[in-house]
Structures are given as C-alpha cells and as structure tokens.
Design brief:
With about 120 residues, the protein is of the alpha+beta class. It contains 6 helices and 4 strands, in the order E-H-E-H-H-H-H-E-E-H. Helix 2 packs across helix 5. It is globular, with a radius of gyration of 14 Å.
C-alpha cells in the first residue's frame, strides 16, 4: 500500500497513526517531493467512480491560485488528471492506493472497511 501525504497536514498525520496502530505495512511518500504518477491518478479516478472533484484538494492554495474551480467545467478528463499528476498539492490527501482499492482523505470508518 502506498500513501501520499503532506507532512504538515494534521489529517495525514492522523492517517499515518491509524495505519501504524493497525500494524499495516505501507510506503509513505511526501506529495511535495513526488506527486502520484499519472497512472496512479488514473487508477484512483477509477476507484472514485470517475468523480474528478474527489481527487482535487479544493481547499488548497494552489487550487485557488490556478482557478481550478472556474476551469473545471471546460477541463477535459485527460487534462485534469495530467494536472493532478504534475502538481501534488492539487491532490486531495491522504491519497492511498492498495491492492484493489483507493482511499482519499481520512475517514476512519471508511478506512476500517478497507483495511
């Protein structure tokens, strides 16, 4: 399982504590240093039933600076996924990919269902 986090994010820190408490094996990647690959973004898009908005960190500074909300209606799926793979701070986090599942954000109840 791979988890992309922003280390200063309290939700990401909660997610890491949760995984450690469950004694689960995972690889942690800092999203500022390495954004999820286009393939990982596409996989997560599939797990989120094609809901692009779920993939974006809509409360983030970069999201506002790039005016993604205004551009979203005219963005193609391909362009949106490419943007996410190029700018890690646009990605909602924590961003977790495991065998047969993908989780975005940390909701303990949802994570308990998968993990």
């Amino acid at each position: 399982m791979i988890i992309y986090i922003y280390s200063k994010c309290s939700t990401c820190q909660q997610a890491i504590r949760f995984l450690k408490q469950k004694k689960l094996s995972f690889t942690c990647k800092e999203i500022l240093e390495q954004a999820p690959s286009l393939q990982e973004i596409q996989t997560m898009f599939h797990y989120q039933n094609g809901n692009l908005k779920k993939l974006f960190n809509t409360s983030g500074k970069l999201y506002r600076e790039l005016q993604i909300a205004e551009k979203m209606p005219s963005l193609t799926e391909e362009d949106a996924l490419l943007l996410l793979s190029q700018y890690g701070m646009l990605v909602k986090r924590p961003f977790v990919l495991g065998e047969g599942f993908g989780l975005i954000g940390f909701k303990e109840e949802e994570w308990n269902n998968y993990l």
